[in-house]
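One record is set out below.
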Amino acid sequence: MQAWLPVGASGDNAARQIVASNTPHVIDEVARWMLARRFGKILHPAHGINVVRGYEGAQIRQTYKKLAAEYGIEWDGRKTTGKWDSLTPINKTISICNSALYGLTEIAIIHAGYSPYFGFMHGHSGKALVYDIADMLKFEHVTPIAFRIVADGRPNPEWRARAACARLFRRCSLLRELITLTEETMNVAFTSLATKPPRRRRKNLPGYMAKN
C-alpha cells in the first residue's frame, strides 16, 4: 500500500481516506457537497452519487456549449477517445489544459497529506481524488484558456495552451486554492465517516422529489 500513499502522509489520515472512499454513504455525501459547491445545486440527502453524476453531466454539457458559442467554435461534444490526431483542435487543447491542471492538483493533494488515488466521484478511475478536486475548478481556470486559444486560429493551439496554463499557475494562488479544497473535501468525508449513515429510502420521498 505504500506506493499508493504520499511520502510523509499521516498514517491515520491515509487509513481514514481509504475507508471513506470505499464507504457508500460517505461517497454520496461528498458527491452532494461537491455538486453544491460547484453548481450551487442542493440535493435531498436520499439522492446518491448516480443522481449527482446525472446532474453534473448535464451541467458540464451546457457549460461546454456556452463556451463554444461565446468563442465562436464549432462544438460536437467532448471527445477523448480514439487516435490523438483524429481529435478536433478544441478537444485536444481541452485535454492538454486538463492534464496540466491534474499535475498541479496532484502536487496539492500530496502537500495536504493525502493520496491522489482514493477519491469519491471518480472512485475507480486511477488518480480519483485528483480528478475530483480538479473538476471543481477546471471550468473556472483552465477550460476557458483552451477555448480562447483555439478561437484565435493560430497554429499548435494545444501547446500554446500548455504554456498559458504554466503562466497561470506561476502567477496565481491556484496551488493554495487546490490545497484548501482538498482539505475541505476530506473534512466533509471524515465528518460523514464519523456519523451513522441516514436511513432514508428513496421510495419514501415525495413523488416529485424522487424523479429529480
Summary: Residues 202-212 have pLDDT under 50 and may be disordered. The chain is about 65% helix and 0% strand. Residues 61 and 77 are 8 Å apart (CA to CA). Residues 2-210 form a domain with the Four Helix Bundle (Hemerythrin (Met), subunit A) fold (CATH 1.20.120.920).
